[in-house]
Amino acid sequence: MVFFVAFLQTSKPIYIFIGKGDEIMFEYKSEIVMADGFKLFSTKASECDMKILDDVINARAAEGWELANYIYSSSPLEAGARFIVTFKKAK
Q: Where do the structural domains in the chain lie, given as residue ranges?
């Protein structure tokens, strides 16, 4: 069994193709989603941040993408918080 992974970087999302032999099984797309505003004293996601994430997940689901994973990244020293969101779609 031979698996391959191919990366295709475009201007916004990064696409990853995972397949077996010559057959592509899944296509993955990762996006950076900026959360709401500057967090000076807190690194926790707010309700507004979660609403932003929900909107992105629902928009991608309408396009046929399934949520695969997400990471929330925030630091008081950074200019803003962000989600790194990965979606997958069967080929």
A: 3-90
